[in-house]
Write a structure and sequence with these properties.
single chain; 125 residues; alpha+beta; Arylsulfatase, C-terminal domain; two-stranded antiparallel ribbon; globular
Length: 125
């Protein structure tokens, strides 16, 4: 078995725990999320965007790498993992929209549970 297949076989499937912090009703940015991967790695600053065709997509945290150029800080490495990540975020976003419609509330600036000390890395030097 090739090395990449051995590595893939030894990893458990990813479990996405998505927390939507903000839901925005207008503009191109529709929400902000944090995504916890198997309780081992958290990605903050994931943005739910609305394109010109009114279709939602997921934007990873990024930095400016020159005038008008941006590079993702972190990202899924395969098309399959990108699709699964995006679907988990969009499903959580849709669920929050449904819940807010049912309760008649909008959701803004909810605390990020991944900011708790339990999710902060222990770093000593």
């Amino acid at each position: 078995m090739p090395e990449t297949q051995k590595q893939a076989a030894s990893h458990p499937p990813l479990n996405y725990n998505v927390n939507i912090q903000n839901v925005l009703r207008e503009g191109s940015r529709r929400g902000i999320a944090s995504v916890d991967l198997n309780g081992q790695f958290t990605v903050r600053g994931v943005t739910i965007m609305n394109d010109s065709r009114n279709k939602l997509f997921v934007s990873m945290p990024s930095y400016e790498a020159g005038i008008g150029k941006y590079r993702d800080v972190c990202f899924p490495c395969t098309a399959e993992s990108k699709a699964a990540f995006d679907q988990a975020v969009l499903d959580a976003y849709q669920q929050v929209l449904i819940q807010s419609q049912e309760t008649g509330q909008s959701r803004k600036a909810a605390p990020d549970p991944f900011d708790s000390p339990a999710h902060a890395p222990d770093m000593t030097m």
